[in-house]
Design a protein that fits this description.
Elements: H1 2-101, H2 107-125, E1 133-136, E2 139-142, H3 148-154, E3 159-161, E4 169-172
Protein name: 16137_t:CDS:1
């Protein structure tokens, strides 16, 4: 009788433990633990870390850096450089040429000024992507996409308009 009782208890323990481990633990662990960890850890980490980091870092850095640099560099620097430098250079050279330098030019100063103008236009203006102005010798060539009269308006103080030829050139005095 005691043996039967022991066998029964052993079977009960074994069955209870096995069944519990088989059904309760594996199911619980398989369904709850892995999914819980996967869903709670992976997805939140994926969604919380990856997407915000991807969206925040990539987009923020991309938007902040690219847009800021593009807006700052292109809109600010390009406009400042182009408009400011072009106006400052044109007005300054125009004033110097008209009011001071032009009246006091000698042959030597004329050569110096011509070389200076050529170098300045070539090295400064053309590098600022003002592509319709090309200095060749003593002439400023205006591309055909801009009329001579329009060109004369913008740099009229330092040039004389010459419509006699078809090359659209403005001669430096």
């Amino acid at each position: 009788m005691d043996e039967d009782k022991d066998m029964f208890m052993n079977n009960l323990r074994r069955n209870t433990f096995t069944n519990y481990m088989e059904y309760a633990f594996p199911s619980c662990m398989e369904n709850t633990f892995p999914y819980h960890i996967e869903n709670m850890f992976t997805n939140p980490m994926k969604n919380t870390f990856t997407n915000p980091m991807k969206n925040t870092f990539t987009n923020s850095i991309e938007n902040t850096f690219v847009n800021h640099m593009e807006n700052t560099f292109t809109n600010h620097t390009y406009k400042t450089l182009t408009n400011h430098t072009w106006d400052a250079f044109t007005n300054h050279i125009s004033d110097l040429l008209t009011n001071h330098t032009w009246d006091s030019l000698t042959s030597h100063q004329s050569d110096t000024f011509t070389n200076y103008m050529n170098d300045t236009f070539t090295n400064v203006i053309l590098q600022m992507n003002v592509s319709n102005i090309i200095v060749v010798d003593k002439k400023i060539r205006i591309d055909h996409n801009e009329s001579v009269s329009d060109s004369c308006e913008s740099i009229k103080d330092i040039t004389n308009c010459n419509d006699t030829d078809n090359e659209n050139t403005l001669e430096v005095n």
